[in-house]
Amino acid sequence: MNLELLLPYLTLAVYLIFTLWVGLIGYKSQTNTAEDYFLANRSLGAIVLFFTLSATNFSAFFFLGFAGSGYRIGISYYPMMAWGTGFAALTFYFIGDRVWRLGKQFALITPAELIFNRFQHQPLKLIFLGVMVIFTLPYLTLQPIGAVYLLENLTGGQIPYFLGETFLTLAIVFYVCIGGMNRVALTDVFQGILMFVLMIVALLAIAHGLGGIGTANQAVYDLNPELFTRQGVDNFFTQKKWFSYMCLWTFTLPMLPQMFMRFYTPKTSASLKVATIFYPIITTILFICPVLIGMWGHLVFPDLIGKEADRIFPLMLNEYTSKWLTSLVMVGALSAFMSTLDSQLLALSSMITRDVYTTYFRPQASLSEQTLVGRLLIVVLAIIGLILAYQPPESILALATQAFTGLSVLFPTVIATLYGRNVSPLSCLLSILVGEGILVGFQTGVIPPSFTLGFLPVIPIVAISSLIIILGTLPMFQTSRPS
């Protein structure tokens, strides 16, 4: 067989073998305790924490969703994402530091345990857990969808969609089950460096094929100047919508279970400060790359619609780079998928194990039994993700926005838990239920879009959820002794 045809498979094989090897390093030294398996014994240093936070959040959406949105909307998508997620990094310290201190003091492992530790209210804990699981599953589903888009282009469609996503997911399940958070964090360092470097390489290589960044931008501007406006194509970003997205990332980023649980893992509080400082820097540098590549896609692929636009990144690589470089960059993109999915699987499995299995079924479960159940749940959750990914959505951005809005409803409750006084657990419970009810109302059309006054639904939803908690602190609404 021609070496050029084998190159994508060889590159993928080397990457997967090396990733699995990294995931197995130090396996025999594990203590087989819940804290070791789920939280890496709360021992992550500043560098590892920074990379695991970044790699976990830079999912397949970073490569495919950003490029697809750059294609549909234009350059304005970049500052919205870079500044929004960069600003959200303040929550790494504002929320993360308190979570870290309380987690260490009370031996907390999951987000719902933090809520229960404060309020001693089982219904609130279960609702909080349920929302995290339900709205993380759609975002989890995006990872195999994005990976297979990449794999199809990498192999010229020789690997069928469902076979490809199953194969990659099984590789992740293997090293997550074996190593837990320690191995996930270690692979995140490798995968994070790989995706950061290769994203910049991809931008420069494609730009070279187009005659340079300036030349490419000028050609796109001459073709469609609307791509360079602040509002974006078809006035996508009104001022209210821009503000809404900025708030959406700030409210949601710390509510992602895989991010929240990392707040428990640092060895010292100083590690969180490092992540808070450097995360906005890396988003500012890297987020422009896929957006520009997506915009340049109009020069060669001017008529992509729907979910086809989310394939513009691999299409541009195939068009303007050599086969070996395309294979290498695609592997970097796959590392984004793997570094997010492994963290999502571990976070969800740990939450269900600790908050459901050991609470209601096996309170006497040993630490080794908890890790065993966690491993089994990783397999189950991976299968659920594959099933949900079988029929991909029309837009990665649309699915991510819906999932993030559902998680953002938890933000007021977390702030009340960490900083509030005289907060009623019933008001937090009502805040979550009403917030999610309003979201369902928007999705089903029961609540008209005009109710948002031009903002995204996240704004009125979080505002109403916050107001309910604030009202619950007033003496006239107190039904029990303050916590």
Summarize the helices and strands and which ones pair or pack.
Layout lengths: L2 H22 L9 H6 L6 H12 L2 H13 L4 H12 L1 H5 L1 H11 L4 H9 L2 H33 L6 H49 L3 H11 L15 H14 L4 H4 L9 H17 L1 H9 L15 H9 L2 H39 L5 H22 L7 H13 L2 H9 L5 H20 L13 H15 L11
Summarize the structure.
It contains 22 helices and no strands. By secondary structure, the protein is an all-alpha fold. The N and C termini lie far apart (70 Å).
Task: Give a written overview of the molecule.
There is one protein chain. The protein is an all-alpha fold and 483 residues long. 73% of the residues lie in helices and 0% in strands. The protein contains 22 helices and no strands. It has helices at 3-24, 34-39, 46-57, 60-72, 77-88, 90-94, 96-106, 111-119, 122-154, 161-209, 213-223, 239-252, 257-260, 270-286, 288-296, 312-320, 323-361, 367-388, 396-408, 411-419, 425-444, 458-472. Helix 10 (161-209) packs across helix 16 (312-320) and helix 10 packs across helix 18. The protein is globular, with a radius of gyration of 22 Å.
Beta content comes to under 5%
Number of helices: 22
Query: Average pLDDT across residues?
Result: 86
End-to-end gap = 70 Å
Notable traits:
mainly alpha; globular; 22 helices; 483 residues
